[in-house]
Task: structure prediction
Amino acid sequence: MSNGASILTFMIISFSLALILIMKKDTLPANVKRPLAILALVMVSFSFVLMIFSFFSGA
Result:
């Protein structure tokens, strides 16, 4: 798998996790919400960094 495909796959997974957490926020247990939200925030932030990096590197 090429580098661009790996970045795209990671972006799709991270945005999907964030979307699922937003849609199912009422059904998640209270002790699981915060760690999953932090993980989703880190993954989405890293996705944006990778997207900007791929634009500048020409991938």
Observations:
- The CA atoms of residues 16 and 40 lie 9 Å apart.
- The mean pLDDT is 89.
- The radius of gyration is 14 Å.
